[in-house]
Design brief:
This protein is mainly β. It has one domain. It is built from no helices and six strands. It has a six-stranded antiparallel sheet with strand order 1-2-3-4-5-6, with no helix packed on it. It is globular, with a radius of gyration of 14 Å.
Amino acid sequence: MRIAYTASDGTGNAQVGYLRLTDQSPVGIVWMFKHPGTKAVFLNSTLVWYAEEASCAQAQCGLGGPPQTGRTFLVDLVVQSERPAGDTAVFDSWPRAGAA
């Protein structure tokens, strides 16, 4: 089982991470991504996309949370690399609802 998630880090930002539970100890493998971000989704079984948030450490974040920077990233879980993405939004994710 693989989970891409977003969790608050206490500064007002969210951090995006990945958790793999299969073939590992009960705790699994946890990998936090490099930039504060939100809206993490799997594009396929090995690629995660997410949108970057502005750092609350550098600017005051209000009740609505930090603004997005407009930058997005792709994380390749196989080679454990992160690179800028060309897409600014994602409208579908993997696996699709109802897929066998």
